[in-house]
Amino acid sequence: IVPIRPGLVREGAPTEAVLLGFVDLTPQRRVEQMRVDFIANASHELRTPLASLSGFIETLQGPARNDANARERFLKIMGEQARRMSRLIDDLLSLSRIELNAHLRPEAEVDLVSVISHVRDALGPLGRERGVEISFDHPAPPVNVRGDRDELIRVFENLVENALKYGGSGGRIEIGIAREGADAVVAVRDYGPGIAPEHVPRLTERFYRVDTAHSREQGGTGLGLAIVKHIVARHRGRLGIESVPGAGSTFSVRLASAAADDKKK
Ligand code: ADP
């Protein structure tokens, strides 16, 4: 209850009023809910391989104690589960580091042709293993943008690896760089099964997968595209996803060229 200034009140009118203020808590609640969901998801993802490891340890201490064959097999699976936990922790740490620095734009001059050549060399063996050819079409180098070379390598490694993991059945992956006005656009295209439209807007959510079992089988953590989205946003770029079920998917990243960026300053 607050007093009303005497000059503002007519004779005989009340001299006190109740002031009510409203604060919209919806955005805070939403952020809080997202944080709670994220921790629940991360714990669940870590608990799954941990439960499997505990199960195998018990079996090796008990029923399979003297079975050399089973021991060999179980240790191999346990190694895979441990690697999965470590990948998940690496991805969680990367994501929080990128989010922490979200407001800092990386400034080094980076040549996209060299970034993609690096990614293609790194993933070529996996492609050959799966019978997939990775082609790369680009204008004369350099195609310079302002950014962080390692983070940009991470973006395109994720996209090409996904094309191999989920679109590899198409037999080829095409990577292209095009100059569009003041921008450089990198597109990663596969000819796999594609993605149904209802999933497309949710792919960059943490832990969102179209087929969780298939993702796990492929060694996925469900965090790859969330990391891609955050790195691209930090570079003030745009991530595009186009997919036609049955025909394949194209993931593209649009970045301002270094020259155009410098002119704006
Ligand atoms: P994951 O670790 O599961 O690969 P991502 O965040 O990288 O996580 O991708 C999320 C989901 O998006 C994948 O689980 C998969 O279902 C789908 N996806 C990503 N790239 C492709 C693609 N090129 N073709 C079909 N589905 C894809």
UniProtKB/TrEMBL annotation:
Coiled-coil residue windows: none
Catalysed transformations (reactions): ATP + protein L-histidine = ADP + protein N-phospho-L-histidine
Molecular function via GO: ATP binding
Keywords from the UniProt entry: ATP-binding, Kinase, Membrane, Nucleotide-binding, Phosphoprotein, Transferase, Transmembrane, Transmembrane helix, Two-component regulatory system
Top-level taxon: Bacteria
Domain Histidine kinase: 41-259
KW ATP-binding (keyword) present: yes
EC number: 2.7.13.3
Protein name from the UniProt record: histidine kinase
Organism the protein comes from: Ancylobacter koreensis
Lineage: Bacteria, Pseudomonadati, Pseudomonadota, Alphaproteobacteria, Hyphomicrobiales
